[in-house]
Write a structure and sequence with these properties.
This protein is of the alpha+beta class and about 250 residues long. Among the domains are: about 50 residues; about 55 residues, 2-Layer Sandwich (Wheat Germ Agglutinin (Isolectin 2), domain 1), CATH 3.30.60; about 55 residues, no CATH class. It has 4 helices and 16 strands. The strands form 5 sheets. The chain has a 4-stranded antiparallel sheet. The longest helix has about 35 residues. The protein is globular, with a radius of gyration of 24 Å. It comes from Brassica napus. Pfam families: C1_2.
Length: about 250
């Protein structure tokens, strides 16, 4: 009688827990071709990450977002510490970031006293960056250089749009040159490109300043598009209800 082969034992994958999610998470290697987004910072997911063990749940986290401290002291808000929230405050579906004035629906660093919110991506922006089209490094400012000056507005040197005085900018004082902190600042320099190639060879996530800013820009554009679509659908539904409520005219022949 032929002997049966023993059944292979299922491979056990170590799982971990995170306070932001009800299901266990497992280690996951994300690739750029996957086009996945981190559920925490809402930026493009690449490199070492965590994924929900449930097949029907698409919850994903960067390892860096998994390891975020629960509280931070940020230079932009010196009066109070900022607490990490895993969803928008006050049971809202979105919040507005005080750094870039863009919406967010994932993690935020929050001050309940001042109603101050930061994207976790903005909270970790580098203090200086390089642009290919400017000879000097740009320094991160937590308000524009025009704040408090009457009849003076800050114009982004890259896109020529007005920047509100309380928003963050990257700025060169020597040349009076400054940009938005997200899309207009996303210029790679040769050194950061070489660093990214080395990191990819080692299997680590791409964490250059320009990469983070580009991912932030992409996520914010997608969020804005979703909100616009929802607003259009809501307006269409309201218009349909108004039309339904109007008195109907009867015609007699």
């Amino acid at each position: 009688m032929a002997s049966r082969k023993p059944k292979a034992k299922p491979v056990s994958r170590q799982s971990v827990r995170h306070q932001s999610h009800s299901h266990p998470l497992r280690v996951f290697k994300a690739k750029e071709d996957d086009e996945t987004v981190c559920s925490g910072c809402e930026l493009e997911l690449t490199g070492q990450a965590f994924k929900c063990t449930k097949s029907d749940c698409d919850y994903l986290l960067h390892k860096s977002c998994f390891d975020l401290p629960g509280e931070t002291h940020h230079k932009s808000h010196k009066d109070h510490p900022l607490t990490l929230l895993y969803s928008p405050p006050d049971d809202e579906s979105v919040y507005t970031c005080n750094a870039c004035d863009q919406y967010g629906s994932g993690f935020t660093y929050h001050c309940s006293n001042c109603k101050y919110n930061l994207h976790v991506g903005c909270a970790s922006l580098p203090e200086t960056i390089l642009r290919e089209d400017h000879e000097h490094p740009l320094t991160l400012l937590y308000c524009t250089s025009c704040k408090g000056r009457e009849d003076t507005t800050f114009i982004c040197s890259a896109c020529d749009e007005t920047v509100l005085e309380d928003l963050w900018v990257y700025y060169c004082r020597e040349c009076d040159y400054g940009t938005h902190v997200y899309s207009c600042a996303a210029y790679e320099d040769q050194e950061s490109n070489e660093e990214e190639e080395e990191e990819e060879e080692e299997g680590e996530a791409s964490t250059s300043p320009a990469s983070r800013i580009k991912s932030l820009m992409k996520a914010q554009d997608e969020m804005a598009a979703m909100q616009l679509e929802a607003r259009i659908m809501n307006d269409a539904n309201e218009a349909a209800l108004d039309l339904w409520d109007q008195p109907k005219r009867r015609y007699y022949w």
